[in-house]
Amino acid sequence: YTIWNFVPKNLFEQFRRIANFYFLIIFLVQLMIDTPTSPVTSGLPLFFVITVTAIKQGYEDWLRHKADNEVNGAPVFVVRSGSLVQTRSKNIRVGDIVRVAKDETFPADLVLLSSDRSDGTCHITTTSLDGETNLKTHYSVAETSVCQSVSRLEALQAVVECQQPEADLYRFVGRITVTQHGEEIVRPLGPENLLLRGARLKNTKEIFGVAVYTGMESKMALNYKCKSQKRSAVEKSMNTFLIIYLGILLFEAVLSTILKYAWQAEDKWDEPFYNHKTEQERNSSPILKFISDFLAFLVLYNFIIPISLYVTVEMQKFLGSFFIGWDLDLYHEESDQKAQVNTSDLNEELGQVEYVFTDKTGTLTENEMQFRECSINGTKYQEINGKLVPEGLTDDSPDGSTPHLVTHIHICTHKYTDTMHTQTGEELLFLKAVSLCHTVQISYDQPDCLAGGGDPFSHANGFSTNDMEYYASSPDEKALVEATKRMGVAFTSSNGATMEIKTFGKSEKYKLLHVLEFDANRRRMSVILQTPSGTVLFTKGAESAILPFTTSGEIEKTRLHVDEFALVRNTLSHTDHQNDKVQETIEALRLAGIKVWVLTGDKHETAVSVSLSCGHFHRTMNILELLQQRSDNECAEQLRRLARRIKEDHVIQHGLVVDGASLSLALREHEKLFMEVCKNCSAVLCCRMAPLQKAKVVRLLKTSPEKPITLAIGDGANDVSMIQEAHVGIGIMGKEGRQAVRNSDYAIARFKFLAKLLLVHGHFYYIRIATLVQYFFYKNVCFITPQFLYQFFCLFSQQTLYDSVYLTLYNICFTSLPILVYSLFEQLVHPHVLQNKPVLYRDISRNSLLSFRTFLYWTLLGFCHAFVFFFGSYVLMGEDTTLMGNGQMFGNWTFGTLVFTVMVITVTLKLALETHFWTWMNHFVTWGSIAFYFIFSLFYGGIIWPFLHTQDMYFVFVQLLSSGSAWFAIIIIVVTCLFPDVVKKVFYRHLQPTSTQKSQAQALSCMESLCCYQHGQSGCSRLARLLEQMTGNCQSPNHQSLLAIFRSWSNSENFYSSDRSILTLSPIDGSQC
User: Fold this and answer.
1) Which residues hold ATP (predicted)?
2) Which of 96, 293, 359, 803 is the catalytic position?
C-alpha cells in the first residue's frame, strides 16, 4: 500500500470476499427496486464492516512501512564532488562509491575498490545471507587497491562491466577497466571481488566500493520471494460455507417466487378484492415481474449470509493477537524482547501446522562454538577452568599434582609422574598444532577489553582479552584458538609470511610456507611451517579424512573417542551452543504430530552433528543420504535405493540428509519420488541450501496433494524467502539482523518459544475462531428461517416477520458481543495441560473443527431451532390470539417479536453452553446482551420517536411482556431447544469422550485434589476453598496456594509421564503437581 492507492487496493481486497461482494449487490438492488426492507439494513452493516477492516489493515501496514523506513533510511557515506557526503541507503545509485566502516552492513552489492589494508583485502561475514558464521576474505584489484583516500578515488577513471542481476549468491562475472596514464588496464571480477548487501564488514577499519546492484536488484533482494496475501485455512473454509449458504439463499428465493406465482394462479389470490392492481401492474412484463419478485425475496432472506461474521473475525484476530505480546512465557529477559505479531490474519493457522521448516544457525544454535574435550594419542582430556585435565581427574587435586601444563610442566609428584613426563611433549605439541593450523585473523583495536583489569588469558562472549580479537574462517577455528590461548599457548600474530605464538609467555616464530585451504573434496586443511628443526605439516579436518592416513599411535582408541564426541574436528570435540530447550521443543512438536525439517546453508558434517545434538536426528535413527549427485540418472537410482530401504526397514525410524546440488536434480525430474522418500522419513535435513532453494522445498510440500499447513522459522536474510513462502512465517530476533523479523508474520526471541506459540496459542486461536464461524452460521439460520416459513402464511407477499430495526441490530448489537468475548477468552483445556500434553494438538489438526460434518451439524441445528421458534410461537397464537387478560388480540408484529425474543435468548444461551472458561466479561456480555435487548425494545416501542416515518412496533413489546402466556411460551420454547443439546453433550462426554475431554476431566480432578487442608481433613465447599486460597489462610504447611501450584506446574519438566504421553493422560495427585 501507499497513501494514494490504499483505498482502492483495500476495497479490492475486501470485495474479493464473497460476503462483502454479496452485500454490496444486495445494497444496490435495494436502491434500484422496491424491496420489503430499507437499504439501510444492508448498507449500514456493510459500511461498518468495510471501515473497521480497513482501519485494522491500515494500522498493520503502517507498522510494516515504519520498519521498512528504518532500513531504507539508514545513513551511509558516498564519495561525491571530492568529499564524503552522508545520504540514505535508499538514495544509492549504480556507480556511487560507498564507504563502509567496520561492523557496518553493506547497503548495496559493491565491487571492492580498496581497504585500509595495504594488500586491498577485507574480511566479511555473510551470516544473514547464507547462515555461515565464518570469516571470508575478499579482494580488490591491484590498480584500485592503492586508492585509499577520497582524493585518489575522485581521480580514479574506471569502468565496471558485469552481468545482469541474478539471485545466485555465489556467482558473479564482470570486469573492470582502469585508465592510467592514457592506458587501459582490464582486470576480471569474480565473487571474491563482490561485497553482497546484507553482509557485514569485520576486522577491517574501512573499505570503499562501487555500487553495481542496488535496491531490488541486489542479490539479497532477488532471493526474496514476492510477498503475497496469505489466507488461512479457516478463511478458505468460511468462503466455502458462504457459497453453500448462498446456494441455500438462492434456493429459498427461487422456491418462494415459484410458490408465489403458483398461489396466484387462482384469481381470488391474484387480485383479491382488497388489493386491486394498477394499470401499470397489469401491463408489466411477466419476466421483469418474476425477476423483481425474485430479487425482493433475495433481499428478504439475505441475512442468512452473515456480513458481521467478517468484522467479528477481524476484531477477534486483531484483539486476540495482543495476547501473544502480553504472554510473559514468550518474553526473553536477557535480550528484553517480547513476541510480536506482524500479521494477525493467521492466528488460527498456528493451530494447524503439520510441517516446520527451520534454519539451523542462530535458530537452533547460538552461532557460538566452545571447546569441550579432546583426545591426545589415546588419552581423553577436558578443559576445566582453563586447564587441560585428563579424564577422571580434577584441577583441584589436594596434592597439587594436576597435570596443568602451566604450573606442572616440570614439577610432577603424582604417582603417574613417569607417564606425565612422557606425555608432556605430546600435549604441548598438540596445543601448538591447534594454535598454528588455521587461517585466523587478529584485530588489536579493542582498547577497552582490559578495562578494569583481568586475566590476560580469560575471554568473554567470544572476545579475547589482552586487546586482541580473533576472526576465523569458521566458528570451530575461533573456538580452538581461543581454547589454546586459555591453556597457555596463544596465537599472537600473522603477517602472511610468519606466524607467532606465545607458549606460556615465551614468544616463538614460524615461517609460513603454504596454506592448503579446506575444500569439500579433501575435507581437511593444512599448513606447512618452517621450524628451526625442519619443515612441519599440521593438518586438521573430518575424522574420515584424517584417520585413514594415520600410520602410528593409538589409532583405535582415538577412533573410539571420536565416535563418543558430539562434534568432531580431527581429534577435538567442541560444541555449537544450542539455544535453550531446543531438544525439548523439537520433541514436543514431534509428539504433536508435526514433522520438523532443517534447511541450512551449512556444511554436511556440521549440520548432521547439530541435528544429532539437538534431537532432530536420534542416535537410533537410520540416516539416509542423498549427497553429491552429479546426474539425473544417478540421483533417480539413489532415490529408488532409499525408497527400497525404507520399505524393507519399515519399523525403524529414518532420517534423510540431502544437499543443495542433489536437491536441484531431485526436484527437476524426480519430484514425486523425492517426496515419497521424504514423507516416509521422520526427520529431513537439507544442507548447503541457497535461499531460494529453501523456498522451493517449502512450496513443494505446500502444493503436494495433501496440502499440509507449513511453518518456516529463521533469523537471517537467507531465511526470508522460505518465511514468505510458508503458510506461517516466524522470525527469530537473533544475531543476524532484522530482515527475517521484518518479513515474518510473527517474531519470537528464541526457538523454544515455538512450542507454546503453537501448542497453546495456536490451539486456543483455532478452537475459538472455528466455534465463532460455526456459531455465526447457526444464529443466522435461526434468524432467517422463520422469515422463510412466515411466507407460507402470508401468501408469499414478501411481508417481513421482523421490524427493520431488529433486522439491522440482530447481528450488530443483540448477538455480537457474547461470541466476540468467547472468541477472545475461551479455553477448552488449561494452558499447562496443552503444553505438557502435546498430543492434544492432534485433536484439532487438518481443520477438524470446521469439517463438513461439523458444519452440517450446526446448520441442521439452526434449522431445527428455527422450526421450534416459529411453530412453537404459532401453536401458542395460531388458534387463539386473545392472550391478553382484557381480550385484546395480538397481531403479526407481536408474533414476529415473540419469535425474535425467543431466538435472541436461545442463541445467547446456546453459546453459554459451549463456553468452558467463564470470566466476568463472559457473564457481563451474556446476561447483558439479553438485558440490553429487553431494555432497548421497551424504549424503542414505548416512545413515539419523531424522526421515524412509521412506528409499527409502538407498544408491541410492552403488550407482549404483559402476557403470562407469552412468558410461559418463551420458557418452554427455550428449554425445548436447548435440552437436547445438554443431553447430547452429557451422552457423548461419557460414552465417546475425545482426548481433550479426557484431559478436561483429569485436569479438573487434579485441581480438585489441590486443596490446602491438613492431611485427613474433610473436603470443603468450593466457596470456602476459594476464599481460603485467595486470603492465603491455608493451614497445612505441606501445601501451597493454587497460584504457587500453578507456577510449579508450569516449571515442571515431567508433569505427565513421558512414556505414556501419546496414549493416555497419567493420573496425578496434588503432591505430584
Assistant:
1) 359-361, 477, 518, 540, 600-602, 688, 694, 718-719
2) 359
CA of 698: how far to CAs of 168, 654, 678, 701, in Å? 19, 20, 13, 5
**What pLDDT sits at residue 941?**
81
| Cα–Cα distance for residue pair 1044/1029, rounded to 1 Å | 10
Between the CA atoms of 1020, 1026, 1030 and 1035, what dihedral angle is there, to the nearest 10 degrees?
Answer: 10
Domain residue ranges of the chain, discontinuous segments joined by +:
1-92, 96-213, 344-367+577-748, 373-569
Name 988's Cβ contacts closer than 8 Å, sequence gap at least 6: none
CA distance 178 to 157: 6
Name the β-bridge partners of 463.
460
Predicted confidence at residue 647, as pLDDT, reads 84
In this structure, what are the phi and psi dihedrals at residue 693, rounded to the nearest 5 degrees? Answer: -65, -35
Alpha-helical (H) ranges within 796-891 are: 804-809, 816-825, 831-836, 852-877
pLDDT tens column, 965-1008: 888 889 999 999 999 999 998 888 888 887 887 887 766 655 44
Catalytic, 359? Answer yes
Buried b (16+ CB within 10 A) or exposed e, 680-707: ebbbbbbbbbbbbbbbbbbbbbeeeeee
User: How many C-beta atoms surround the C-beta of residue 1021 within 10 A?
Assistant: 8
Distance CA 525, CA 437 (A): 8
Map 967-1003 to HEC letters: HHHHHHHHHHHHHHHHHHHHHHHHHCCCHHHHHHHHH
Write out the E strands in 902-948: none
DSSP assignment letter at 369: E
The CATH fold of domain 373-569: Calcium-transporting ATPase, cytoplasmic domain N (3.40.1110)
Q: Cell digits for 59?
A: 494500522
Confidence of residue 1038 (pLDDT cuts 50, 70, 90): very low
Which residue type, as a one-letter code, is found at position 304? Answer: I
Q: Are 176 and 111 in contact (CB under 8 A)?
A: yes
pLDDT tens column, 133-181:
667 889 999 999 999 899 889 889 999 999 999 888 888 999 999 998 8
Query: Which whole-number Å values give the CA distances from 369 to 84, 427, 581, in the listed order?
Result: 39, 22, 17
Q: What is the pLDDT of residues 217-263, one digit of tens each?
A: 998 888 776 556 677 888 888 888 988 998 999 999 999 999 988 88
End-to-end C-alpha distance for the chain, whole angstroms: 51
Band the pLDDT of 574: cuts 50, 70, 90. Answer: very low
What would the CATH number be for the domain defined by 344-367+577-748? 3.40.50.1000
* Dist. CA 855–CA 505, nearest whole Å: 78
Which residue shows C-alpha cell 519470537?
748
Question: Which residue numbers belong to the known binding site for ATP?
Answer: 359-361, 477, 518, 540, 600-602, 688, 694, 718-719
Of 264 and 809, the structure prediction assigns the larger pLDDT to 809
Q: How many whole angstroms separate alpha carbon 215 and alpha carbon 251?
A: 54
DSSP string spanning 987-1051?
HHHHHS--HHHHHHHHHHHHHHH-----TTPPP--HHHHHHHHHHT----TT---HHHHHHHHHH
Known binding residues for Mg(2+): 359, 361, 715, 719
Percentage with pLDDT > 90 across the chain: 31
Q: Which residue has the cell 487442608?
A: 1013
Determine the residue type at 946: P
Is residue 618 within 8 A of residue 611, CB to CB? The reply is no
SS3 track for 143-180: HHHCCCCHHHHHHCCEEEEECCCCCCCCCCCEEEEEEE
Cβ contacts of residue 3 below 8 Å, gap of 6+? none
Q: What is the pLDDT of residues 812-826, one digit of tens each?
A: 889 999 999 999 999
Contact 776, 820 (CB under 8 A): no
Alpha-carbon distances, residue 119 vs 113, 139, 159 (angstroms): 11, 8, 21
